[in-house]
């Protein structure tokens, strides 16, 4: 499907599910059915409500899903609060895709992969994980390390427990920050859990979450012998206009909208410490 990424098109919300107390996942289709446009894992789209505002969000569904696209959105401002009030059947404008995405048909192919996420940081990685699950023969082993403040803050927990854990070659490691009644799983912050798991440093890592989590997770990985050119992250929160024209996404000589949002950490090392 050919679609000019600069021109908004109308989509309709066909399903809404509440993942956590402050995260909802919205399923969007084109008015005539199907996806609004094609994308690759890690790319983003601009969602807008006329008269309210617009913002960039990761496309959380895999490109292998032909019927729709999904967006997991945390309630944290004016636009997201408005989105959280939407009902199934309402229309929204959408344009995209934007960004480079993860190299699922390039450098990641054939590799053993580790996905590390914290909180809503699972949203950008979910698209990649489900793409890899749908193409298992093209990738090695898969480990998913996912943590949140509490069990109630784990996004997509039903899909994780009912689908991901049952996929051959996929190992899921869940943790929460503090012990709570009814939780019999692991309790630790994500960086400490990564250290405890002791992964093979020859594996390739994709990490996304709060900046402080990423900082200490990267430190834990480096201490285990991982190479920075084998660790990827996404910086979609720095994206603004989507095409690098407004200049608000620049870091040094790079524009996150055009050159990212996906970067390896050795690429980030070449940039000013502004992120």
Write up what this structure looks like:
By secondary structure, the chain is α/β, with parallel strands linked by helices. Helices cover 20% and strands 31% of the residues. It has helices spanning 78-83, 122-134, 157-162, 190-197, 211-223, 256-259, 265-268; strands at 9-20, 23-30, 44-49, 53-58, 69-74, 91-98, 113-118, 142-148, 170-176, 186-187, 204-208, 231-234, 250-251, 254-255, 262-264. A hairpin with a 2-residue loop joins strand 13 (250-251) and strand 14 (254-255). Helix 4 (190-197) packs parallel to helix 5. The radius of gyration is 18 Å and the shape is globular.
How would you summarize this macromolecular structure in one to three sentences?
The chain is built from seven helices and 15 strands. With 275 residues, the chain is an alpha/beta fold.
Specify the helix fraction band.
10-25%
* Fraction of residues in β-strands: 25-35%
Gross CATH architecture of the largest domain? 3-Layer(aba) Sandwich
Number of helices: 7
Instruction: State the end-to-end CA separation.
Output: 35 Å
Domain tally: 2
Protein name: FAD/NAD(P)-binding protein
Pfam families: DHODB_Fe-S_bind, FAD_binding_6, NAD_binding_1
Organism: Candidatus Alectryocaccomicrobium excrementavium
Cofactor: [2Fe-2S] cluster
């Amino acid at each position: 499907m050919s679609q000019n990424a600069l021109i908004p098109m109308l989509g309709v919300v066909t399903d809404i599910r509440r993942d956590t107390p402050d995260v909802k996942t919205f399923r969007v289709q084109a008015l005539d059915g199907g996806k609004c446009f094609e994308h690759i894992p890690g790319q983003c789209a601009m969602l807008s409500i006329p008269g309210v505002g617009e913002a960039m969000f990761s496309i959380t569904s895999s490109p292998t899903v032909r019927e729709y696209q999904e967006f997991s959105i945390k309630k944290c401002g004016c636009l997201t609060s408005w989105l959280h009030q939407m009902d199934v059947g309402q229309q929204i404008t959408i344009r995209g895709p934007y960004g480079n995405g993860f190299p699922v048909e390039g450098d990641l192919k054939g590799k053993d992969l580790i996905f590390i996420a914290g909180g809503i940081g699972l949203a950008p990685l979910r698209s990649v994980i489900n793409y890899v699950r749908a193409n298992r023969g093209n990738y090695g082993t898969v480990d998913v390390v996912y943590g949140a403040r509490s069990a109630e803050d784990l996004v997509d927990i039903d899909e994780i427990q009912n689908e991901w854990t049952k996929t051959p070659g996929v190992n899921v490691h869940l943790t929460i920050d503090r012990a709570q009644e009814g939780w019999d799983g692991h309790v630790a912050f994500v960086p400490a859990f990564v250290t405890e798991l002791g992964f093979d440093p020859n594996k390739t890592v994709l990490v996304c979450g709060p900046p402080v989590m990423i900082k200490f997770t990267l430190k834990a990985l480096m201490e285990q012998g991982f190479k920075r050119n084998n660790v990827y992250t996404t910086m979609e929160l720095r994206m603004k206009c989507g095409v690098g024209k407004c200049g608000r996404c620049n870091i040094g000589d790079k524009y996150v909208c055009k050159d990212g949002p996906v970067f390896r950490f050795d690429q980030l090392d070449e940039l000013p410490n502004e992120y």
